[in-house]
Amino acid sequence: MIIIIIYSVVMTLSELSLHQQARISLLPSDFALSAQLIAQGFALQSVISLAHKAPFNGPLAFYLHGTKMCLPLAIAQQINIELVPA
Known about the structure:
With 86 residues, this protein is α+β, with helices and mostly antiparallel strands. It has helices at 31-39, 73-76, and strands at residues 11-12, 21-26, 47-53, 60-64, 67-71, 80-83. The protein has one domain (11-83): SH3 type barrels. The protein has two helices and six strands; from the N terminus they run ββαβββαβ. The chain is globular.
């Protein structure tokens, strides 16, 4: 008998490395914030990658659906992701 164990490490957008790809797995629990993020294209299962990290805990820029989008660090810390295998 073969047992395969699949596990995923919970990460947030703020922990993503430069140009590393991931899928959005969980949005913030605040409904209004989640609705605004979905309207901007941050939908579940969307592939996203980090384009730029500003210094001093500044905003983060991401490539999402072919567009560069910026988010404050505090919001990026509330969005869970799953890494996409290279």
